[in-house]
Design the sequence.
């Protein structure tokens, strides 16, 4: 197992390097001069040039790239050209909110999605199954920001139960949860739809296996077949695809953060683009991709843990 | 095949709605009751009425007319980006799966890298770089779609390339392009079509997301995402703007998802309802 973990971790490094290079390139081809963006359109040529020098933008591209990777290696994300604050500090302030939001959504998704998927698969073509199919189709179709707006209309405007703006104070748990409820529900409903659909189909696949029929034939109790034979095997795709959906969820979290005006990586990123704050944009993209690479790594590791066939290859 | 389609209620309903939506998009100038850009300062933020079925927005523009015209942008971007992604991605995937070796490594690692970016984050960054107009949005979303098609076709080809008819074609000296286009492509087209139908929904949602952030086709052009964003500012007084524009997105994506699901059921009855 240990060698599998190490091998899989080593495999992530080249991917991460290429991804970082791509982020570097994308941010360099963005239109407009970052120095002009920071100083305004009426800044003098000398001032712009001085700032470019200070920001290291006059250096050749390869040197900028080496500095970028070197700084990242030391955990230095640079200084925001708009706010003047270290980007690492800004990211550290908002990252917990994004993680809290997405983690709650993932937990909600598994908490409701797996039981719903099981009940739909076991009672195939029943009312429960039908309801589940409609629910998951709707969940797969609705844009996150629209669902967020509908929930705001319902639970903040028509029935003023929850606040619309912000994320609350971290040291005030009640406040934090009140602010978290609607955004987490928005993302959680989407995740539930994904997990329900996936659990249903993977359980249906396993139910058709020979060993399940054998278990039934030798008189194993219904529940025991379900929990011991079906669920344990169905768990493998549920976990594996769960990682994939977590990545999709991170994309949707950007929209939810914007709709609910929550501090987070998404609002930071979109704000950075609007202000042409390239240092911040570059760093946020790096953080996002690192999270995705980590999720993929973690998924594979859990996969190896629950499916003994994998780690030996 | 058609009888199977007609018997599959999900696919049928989805298909009918999708056709209706395409109809609305194509004939928008004749269906829309008003000019989508015409402002009527006497009817600003007016609630639903006989004159304005879905009310008016902050500039007194008819919401129904704007939704009808918005259909065009969503459909054009959704369909064009998926078709572009399908062509480029499938070509890449087929080459990777058929030629193997270094070509495969390069192409598939490229898709791995692109897929490290969540769709929306990649789309936001690329749109910021290219600028947001219709063509650039299509290109951006096509870029997001390309690796998906590449992976799908790559996987499909791996299972086909050892088939007898492929080996036979190779044996009689058929060239790679001929084998790929004449022998392999027709056999994976069904799966690609199903995925493409489902991914039109993804593409439309992506465009709506970008528009909502303010990175879509720029106002005053009516797009559903733009309308929702403008509607959010007046959500308390005029919720209908965002609600109806969002409903249009939801119904459109839903119809393509139902259609795609249903067609997949037909192609592979084993997977019914997945």
Sequence:
């Amino acid at each position: 197992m240990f060698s599998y973990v190490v091998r899989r971790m080593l495999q992530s490094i080249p991917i991460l390097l290429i991804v970082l290079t791509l982020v570097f390139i994308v941010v360099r081809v963005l239109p407009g001069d970052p120095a002009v963006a920071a100083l305004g359109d009426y800044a003098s040529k000398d001032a712009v040039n001085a700032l470019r020098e200070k920001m290291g933008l006059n250096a050749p591209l390869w040197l900028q790239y080496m500095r970028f990777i070197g700084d990242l290696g030391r955990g230095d994300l640079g200084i925001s050209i708009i706010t003047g604050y270290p980007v690492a500090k800004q990211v550290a302030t908002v990252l917990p909110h994004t993680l809290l939001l997405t983690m709650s959504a993932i937990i909600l998704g598994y908490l409701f999605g797996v039981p719903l998927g099981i009940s739909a698969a076991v009672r195939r073509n029943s009312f429960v199954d039908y309801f589940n199919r409609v629910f998951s189709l709707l969940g797969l179709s609705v844009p996150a920001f629209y669902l967020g707006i509908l929930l705001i209309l319902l639970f903040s405007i028509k029935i003023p139960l929850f606040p619309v703006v912000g994320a609350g104070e971290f040291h005030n748990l009640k406040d934090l949860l009140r602010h978290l409820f609607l955004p987490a529900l928005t993302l959680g409903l989407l995740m539930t739809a994904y997990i329900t659909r996936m659990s249903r189909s993977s359980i249906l696949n396993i139910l058709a296996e020979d060993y399940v029929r054998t278990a039934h034939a030798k008189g194993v109790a219904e529940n025991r077949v379900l929990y011991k034979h079906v669920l344990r095997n169905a768990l493998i795709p549920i976990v594996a695809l769960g990682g994939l959906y977590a990545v999709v969820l991170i994309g949707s979290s950007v929209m939810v953060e914007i709709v609910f005006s929550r501090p987070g990586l998404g609002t930071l990123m979109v704000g950075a683009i609007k202000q042409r704050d390239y240092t911040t944009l570059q760093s946020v993209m790096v953080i996002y991709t690192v999270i995705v690479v980590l999720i993929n790594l973690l998924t594979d590791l859990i996969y190896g843990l629950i499916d003994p066939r994998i780690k030996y290859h | 095949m058609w009888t199977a389609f007609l018997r599959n209620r999900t696919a049928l309903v989805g298909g009918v709605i999708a056709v209706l939506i395409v109809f609305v998009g194509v004939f928008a100038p004749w269906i829309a009751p008003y000019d989508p850009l015409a402002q009527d300062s006497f009817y600003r933020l007016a609630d639903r009425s006989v004159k304005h079925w879905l009310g008016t927005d902050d500039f007194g523009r008819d919401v129904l007319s704007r939704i009808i015209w918005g259909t065009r942008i969503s459909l054009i971007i959704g369909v064009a980006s998926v078709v572009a992604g399908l062509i480029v991605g499938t070509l890449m995937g087929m080459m990777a799966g058929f030629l193997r070796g270094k070509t495969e490594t390069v192409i598939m690692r490229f898709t791995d890298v692109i897929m490290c970016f969540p769709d929306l984050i990649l789309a936001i960054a690329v749109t910021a770089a290219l600028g947001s107009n219709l063509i650039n949005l299509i290109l951006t979303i096509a870029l997001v779609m390309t690796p998906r098609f590449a992976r799908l076709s790559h996987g499909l080809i791996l299972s086909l390339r050892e088939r007898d008819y492929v080996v036979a074609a190779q044996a009689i000296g058929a060239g790679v392009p001929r084998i790929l286009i004449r022998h392999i492509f027709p056999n994976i087209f069904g799966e690609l079509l199903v995925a493409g139908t489902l991914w039109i929904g993804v593409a439309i949602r992506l465009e709506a997301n970008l528009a909502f952030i303010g990175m879509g086709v720029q106002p005053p052009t009516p797009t559903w995402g733009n309308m929702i964003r403008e509607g959010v500012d007046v959500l308390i007084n005029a919720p209908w703007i965002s609600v109806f524009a969002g409903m249009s997105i939801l119904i459109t994506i839903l119809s393509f998802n139902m259609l795609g699901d249903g067609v997949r059921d037909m192609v592979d009855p084993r997977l019914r309802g997945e």
